């Protein structure tokens, strides 16, 4: 079902949060426009004209076509925060959540767990070289929420849009032996994740990667290059503040 109004997404390639929204838009079959924001070199107009906090994603609903350096029209709605946008899209496109209220509640709990627990451990691990055991524990917690087959609540939903961008980045960063990891940590963590203990979440990852929505929205080379630039910048700023 198409949205009645134009959809415009401000996004960045490296961060999981706008990737969530792109996955949901693709799964919904929505027509939407994209405006790329490079987080390592944010344009001044973005905070001034679009979102004062200069974060992504931002979804603009309604109004005419937008271009860089242009503010959304007054009649358009500007929606921020990826989890809020996912809920909004599920209202526009009901197939993004199951009809069963119990499964809908489970989907929301799944998203809440990603946001409040998994994402924090993920960023600590990949940016600051956090604990491998804590990262594996976080993956195990998410795995425990998955059903035996299928996606987070059976059929694909916004719950999977919330989690899959983190999981695909974690696998890629480990496989590529990302620069933030100490010697041997990437290889050891990846080996642990490929062990039978994590067979369910690994199969879940493969099933998400196989979807057309992921193929259209995930460019590993571009994403990892931008992640590298951002991590170097964050680590440099942290050292300067010590």
From TrEMBL:
Residues 5-97 form the GST N-terminal domain. Gene3D superfamilies: 1.20.1050.10, Glutaredoxin. This is GST N-terminal domain-containing protein. It comes from the Eukaryota. Signal peptide: none annotated. One of its GO terms (cellular component) is cytoplasm. InterPro entries: Glutathione-S-Trfase_C_sf (IPR036282), Glutathione_S-Trfase (IPR040079), Glutathione_S-Trfase_N (IPR004045), GST_Omega/HSP26 (IPR050983), Thioredoxin-like_sf (IPR036249). Pfam families: GST_N_2. Transmembrane segments: none annotated. It comes from Lentinus brumalis.
């Amino acid at each position: 079902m198409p949205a009645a109004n134009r959809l415009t997404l401000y996004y960045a390639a490296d961060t999981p949060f706008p990737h969530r929204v792109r996955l949901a838009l693709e799964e919904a079959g929505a027509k939407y426009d994209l405006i790329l924001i490079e987080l390592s070199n944010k344009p001044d107009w973005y905070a001034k004209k679009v979102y004062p906090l200069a974060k992504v994603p931002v979804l603009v609903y309604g109004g005419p076509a937008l271009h860089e350096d242009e503010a959304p029209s007054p009649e358009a709605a500007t929606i921020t925060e990826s989890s809020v946008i996912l809920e909004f899209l599920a209202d526009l496109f009901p197939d993004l959540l199951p009809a069963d209220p119990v499964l809908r509640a489970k989907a929301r709990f799944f998203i809440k767990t990603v946001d409040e627990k998994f994402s924090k451990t993920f960023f600590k691990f990949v940016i600051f070289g956090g604990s491998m055991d804590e990262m594996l524990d976080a993956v195990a917690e998410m795995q425990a929420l998955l059903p035996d087959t299928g996606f987070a609540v059976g059929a694909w939903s916004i719950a999977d849009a919330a989690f899959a961008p983190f999981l695909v980045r974690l696998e890629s960063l480990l496989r590529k032996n990302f620069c933030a990891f100490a010697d041997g940590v990437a290889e050891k963590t990846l080996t642990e994740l490929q062990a039978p203990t994590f067979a369910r979440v690994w199969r879940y990852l493969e099933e998400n990667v196989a979807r057309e929505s992921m193929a259209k929205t995930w460019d590993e080379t571009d994403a990892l290059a931008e992640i590298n630039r951002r991590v170097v910048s964050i680590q440099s700023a942290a050292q300067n503040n010590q």
